[in-house]
Predict the 3D structure of the following.
Amino acid sequence: MNDLIARGIAQEAVDAVLSTSFDDIADCRKRIDALLSVSTRETFTLLAGAFKRVINIIKNHAACEVDPQLLQEEAEKQLYAVYVEVKEKVEPLLAAKAYEPAMEKILDMKEPVDVFFDAVMVMSEDAALRNNRLSLLAAIAQLFLRIGDFSKMYTLTGTE
């Protein structure tokens, strides 16, 4: 049974990477290995669930430009700050194709994402706030998608 689960998680990692790009087989393999290396951690499991929620919320929202002046709630300010910090650390790792260390840094976003969803009404009646919040989530999603679509690894993590 554990072997079947392991193969399922491996297949989910392959699906997660291939759904974002498939232009370099060696690069795809590195991203798959990075996802597999962190996929059994509780932090990743919870982040994959949150990422699936992000993907569902930002459907049809393409903008990723966040206006820091429009951040009102403490939770969204904190998420933005963590996003900027993580992005600064992850960008050079992604450029160097060091996906495992990049994944380690991305996992730092788990708690701020959870707090954001608990404390912030994303779909605010104020269009500017709503669009800015959606843009923040879209920017986070774009960073994650540089490695793979974590939401594809959600079904075997035991949280669905």
In short: The radius of gyration is 16 Å. The domain at 2-153 is CATH 1.10.730 (Isoleucyl-tRNA Synthetase; Domain 1). Confidence is low (pLDDT under 50) at residues 1-8, 156-160. The CA atoms of residues 1 and 143 lie 34 Å apart.
